[in-house]
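Hi F.,

I've been meaning to write this up properly since the lab meeting, where we talked about keeping a consistent format for the predictions we share between groups. The idea is simple: the sequence comes first, exactly as it goes in, then the structure tokens exactly as they come out, then a line or two of notes. No screenshots and no reformatting. I'm using this chain as the first example so we have something concrete to point to.
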Amino acid sequence: MNIFKRLFHSRYKPKIKNSLGSSVFGSFLSSSSSGKTVGQTSALSVTAVYSCVRILSEAIAGLPLHTYKYKNSGGKEKAIDHPLYILLHDEPNPDMTSFVFRETLMSHLLLWGNAYAQILRNRKGDVMALYPLSPNRMTVDRASNGRIYYTYSTSVDDNPKLKSKGQVYLKAEDVLHIPGLDFDGLVGYSPIAMARNAIGMAMACEEYGAKFFANGASPSGVLEHPSTIKNPDKLRESWNSLFKGSSNSHRIAVLEEGLKYRPISISPNEAQFLETRKFQINKIALMF
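Output, unedited:
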């Protein structure tokens, strides 16, 4: 049987007893204390999160990966002729190199707290390929006999041979599962979920900073006129055209006809804006 036709194919139908779930801090889309919705994808918009995930993933993927065998005389040597050597060192599957494969799994581990890969075997039981699985579509369960199994929600995007969507049950021996920090040894906690308040605060700070400069760093306040203004919208548009935006900040305003400008905003330093951003970035970096 062609290995591609066997992708996600399983006749395993476990008798469900209870569900371990994917960890209470697994795949989620939750609102933080700052009001920002934090998820694995949206968290990557924070430069600190993206940098940590990229640097750690590339560092792990770049490490040498070899299979070894013990020698009768003692010591060990590279087992280049071992069937798993090519899979681990060169090409886990026809679609990606070992570097890309490990980089993908490491990014999953950092974002979701779990990394999964399906182990494809031939009829003899030999490992033929390893394919990464999306953690947000994986659930870990326990059957009535106490054995762990995996439920994966498939998609037509996973494999061109797969014609319909649905759920596939995979045995524990058919899944390479690398859990992150956890308390049960089965399913890891998502670092993004654990740090959602810090990440949400960082997202809010970046949004505030972007809007602050977009609306004009200075001047900013209220225009006062001793009498009634016939066309306040025109005056506002004229003022914004001269002073709105970071490129127009700190320009000198010339006021006429008794017009007065009263500033009402505070500077980023006074609001400890820069210090807040640095503090949140340090907190995020410590999580990784």
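Notes:
The CA atoms of residues 67 and 80 lie 7 Å apart.
The first strand starts at residue 16 and ends at 21.

If this format works for you, I'll send the rest the same way.

G.
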